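Task card 7
Instruction: Convert sequence to structure tokens.
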Amino acid sequence: MREEILINITPQENRVAVVENGMLQEVHLERSANRGIVGNIYKGIVSRVMPGMQAAFVDIGQEKAAFLHVADIFTAQDLNQEAPELQQEVLQNTHNTDIATLLRVGQKIVVQVIKDPLGTKGARLTTHITIPSRYLVLMPDYKHIGVSQRIADEEERARLRELLSDKNNAKYGYIIRTAAEKVEERELKRDSDFLNKLWSAIESNSKKVKAPGLIHEDLKLELRIMRDTLADDIERIRIDNAQAKDRISSFIKKFSPELLSRVELYQGERPIFDLYNIEDEIKKALERKVQLKSGGYLIVDQTEAMTTIDVNTGAFVGHKTLEETIFRTNLEAANALARQLRLRNLGGIIIVDFIDMQDTEHKRQVLRTLEKALDRDQVKTQITEVSSLGLVEMTRKRSRESLEHLMCEPCQQCNGRGFVKTSVTVCYEIFREISRAARAYEVQKFLVLASQEVVESLLDEEANSLAELEGDIGKPIRLQAEALYSSDQFDVVLI
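Output:
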């Protein structure tokens, strides 16, 4: 598969596009005024302990207090336990210790951010510090060597473990990342030496930083992408900024020198994101409707609780039976929605409503197609079987805001509901308000302030109803259009 990484650098924001076979698969952006904080290490102050939730809020110097659950707190008992098997480089350890015995209000604590603030929620924290590099993730509190489950060959897994085992005097615990498959011992040692020095510097800095304060900041976006996604199948890395190109080249020279020749400075007249119509693809990724080549389409609705994806045949009528048409649409949709998850960076609970299929084999093939399409996704996903209603429940790890939340905000007119009242509905609300006021107060006349659209409705299709109301209350009603009023906003003024 031909893969390219395009990097657009401006003073306001940095953007990275991952392109596979000429098609945009992922887009990452980081704005100078609002950088993500995942991976950052802070010295925080416990501001509130909640035994009922087995959690605490920690002040790390951000606008909102961050959230720390008891399962994410490293304890002294953990030092004597070998870490559980690791999945996709993620370590999770839970215990039943009462949080009130671990934390107290005012206590200073070193924490790492594992989820950016999302919506109304503050950042999610852990005390299980992990520091990633190209091939390894350092776990300073463990002496365990884990291997990414994406490395399937048992001999290779054993070889990698041996290279970092106690025989080689491993000072800390490590997770061996997928990128480490087939690498030589010297490369792993270089990574481990780098991480050990970095951790020593972090420990030293943590003693000097005043709480709440930042101890260690993760890499900038473009360097994080190099660290986390760089692989042999990357054909080219194009950057439109000379300074950024130098930073990336230095980084790659240190960790993957064999890929250095693939880095190039883009100096074309066209903006770099115009090469593969990436700007247009980003616009499409913010829309609800995703058109399929066959004529079918997806409807993507993102809420705070979950994301739902509805599959429809649309204009696709097929050439054989209805069941075959549904099957082909669902197959195409499985590939398309896997791309949309990556492109939009959708996370959390995701419900996919495939078109109902009767054939069990068709259901199996659609699910396998979805799983295969997600194989290239770096983010961990879990998928259930197709239910009798054609629904597939899945989860995708969420650590950063989705593309929609980064680039958009709730509509000021509908407050994010996605709909507004019709002008007729507003007219009837005005009639009820006038009737209510006429019974309660002695007034000479009423003045209605509303949007131009509502005023026109009152003077047109609702003119007879307005005249009847004037007759019933015995008071004149005057109308005034307000340009700044939203379509469902109005005021009834008593004069």
